[in-house]
Specification:
The structure is a homodimer of 330-residue chains. By secondary structure, chain A is of the alpha/beta class. Helices cover 40% and strands 21% of the residues of chain A. The first copy, chain A, has ten helices and 15 strands. In chain A, the strands form three sheets. A seven-stranded mixed sheet of chain A has the order 1-4-3-2-5-8-7, with helices on both faces. The first copy, chain A, has a five-stranded mixed sheet with strand order 13-12-11-14-15, with helices on both faces. In chain A, strands 6-9-10 form a three-stranded mixed sheet, with no helix packed on it.
Chain lengths: 330, 330
């Protein structure tokens, strides 16, 4: 779906670059103007695992042409930058992770490009990797670009901040002196999805979703109850607390509409409580607006201070990357 | 599949009762002789969610006839006792939970029966329920019978013990003075199954299962590494540790054959460490022999003392229940 109220020929005059957020399950393309403002955008389901042609270069080329072909017809020489899983082992071109500490310059240095098949290059931002002493390594692809964008938008955060980027795999990323020094991933979103879809807990949840006022109130009560369970027993095993979702529903202490919200509150509560304990810097939420609101509500209920909530800063990050890579002719 | 080396007519002479362990996904039937010894057994997939005819009395009757019909032809007057989900809301007949503290006498008092359609009654053992002050209620169906059997088999455990019954929904059950005083459920087995089958972690695991010696060694190393991760960071969120499974595999620090074992070690480790912290009594493992071995290995690696490992004691429990219910004519 393409959005953008501006007439294509005006877009063409103002366009400065094409920015792609290319993940596992979706491909978002943006036509950016001055200072990275969004002139037009297209969202498709052509994530790297759902290409229009499976397996290989042609699938990537076709997906790229679908989202960016018309823009390139208007302005053939636009710089093009992508971030996300498109740079992974199963992406268009593997761009190795850059080890922490990482800043924009380090990412630019390790960038790689592919030929799009349309007579222009596509540059891919590398992902980041950290190696904690006492645990497994951790990796990100795409979030490093969101972080770059957030730091561009709010330069005072360079001094020291912990970004919380909620999602399928939530990231908690520590910034100090303008560098990403380490980060942790929580599988909160994925756990929620598979528990809802495939577990015995899912069977207790309603199939349809009412959005009337009463239901909204019931959901809020459920969400808070889940957060409360996480707070009351932060050290008990999650696998035990999860069974509580089942017994509360079976004993009618939780209405069906509240069950998914309780589960969400429980999982987000565990993430926030563990993350906030580990973090010394102010917390800043960034990324998907709906998820950020949910995390903000949860933080406030749990008494965890959130310093700021930023929009999706991915396009800002891709703009900063293009600038630092000197991809603009002027 | 029916097993039992004895000739049917001999079974008929020795048979004292029919015992059923009737769960969600399987129905196990036993022909018991003197003191509850097993003369013959049949295992089918006719769990209450997989009846030969869906939804209702006829499905239960047909499943029952399939497993026990031939035995009843030989000995029409055998007492018949069942435990497990057959007594749940979606079972043959709902038998309400008995609240903790619970002992054999309390269970017998609340038993109910159904007409099998074959001219005899089937008695159903109630499940147990506890209501902790600081958390959701907890419930069991079937494990109470295993516990009764274990206490019959090892009467000295009546004084005080914590039974660990590993499974899809592992139970940690505290016994004091012959009573089940409370218990906790961990969704360890179910979490393992859905993460393996439906998550991004599952995609990193091998499809086929080699059982040669090298693979066995790789698996053991993976299992121990998972246990170690649980021990090293017992307070970090499980959803974070789970992402470590992914990064260890992606960075080749974990061989594909070791990935499922690492996940198993991580989940069992979390359960054992949380359970052992909460428990003051000696731990006794009971139930499925393969799972008990796995938990025993894990406990030993984590330095958690296990007092004893018992066989599956369910048939002993059903025997004790029949005795206490005075179902025998002699």
């Amino acid at each position: 779906m393409s959005t953008g109220a501006m007439h294509p020929s005006d877009q063409g005059k103002l366009a400065q670059m094409i920015a792609l957020d290319w993940g596992t399950s979706s491909l978002r393309a943006y036509l950016l103007g001055d200072k990275g403002c969004v002139l037009a955008q297209v969202t498709t389901s052509y994530g790297i695992q759902h290409l229009p042609l499976p397996g290989g270069r042609l699938g990537f080329e076709l997906a790229f042409k679908t989202v960016a072909g018309a823009w390139l017809d208007l302005c053939p020489n636009l710089p093009i930058v992508a971030c996300g899983m498109v740079g992974s082992k199963h992406g268009w071109c593997e761009v190795p992770y850059v080890n922490c500490p990482v800043d924009l310059r380090a990412l630019v240095k390790e960038t790689r490009h592919v030929d799009t098949g349309l007579g222009c290059k596509l540059w891919i931002v590398p992902g980041a990797r950290c190696e904690p002493i006492d645990g497994p390594p951790d990796v990100m692809r795409g979030e490093e670009t969101q972080i770059i964008g957030a730091l561009l938008q709010q330069p005072q955060l360079n001094a020291g901040v912990t970004f919380v980027l909620p999602g399928t795999h939530s990231k908690w990323a520590s910034i100090r002196n303008g560098e990403l020094i380490n980060f942790q991933t929580y599988m909160t979103g994925e756990l929620y999805a598979i528990l809802r879809e495939h577990s015995t807990l899912g069977r207790l949840m309603p199939l349809s979703n009412n959005d009337d006022e009463d239901t909204a109130q019931i959901k809020l009560v459920g969400f808070r109850a889940g957060l409360n369970a996480a707070r009351t027993n932060p050290n008990s095993a999650l696998s035990q607390q999860l069974f509580g979702v089942r017994t509360l529903a079976l004993t009618d202490k939780l209405l069906p509409q509240a069950v998914p919200e309780y589960l969400s509150g429980l999982l987000i509560g565990y993430e926030l409580l563990a993350g906030a304990t580990d973090s010394e810097s102010p917390l800043v939420l960034a990324g998907d607006a709906v998820l950020c609101q949910r995390y903000s509500l949860a933080s406030s209920y749990l008494g965890i201070k959130v310093h700021a909530i930023l929009d999706n800063t991915g396009t800002k990050g891709l703009w900063a990357f293009a600038c630092a890579s000197k991809l603009f002719q002027n």
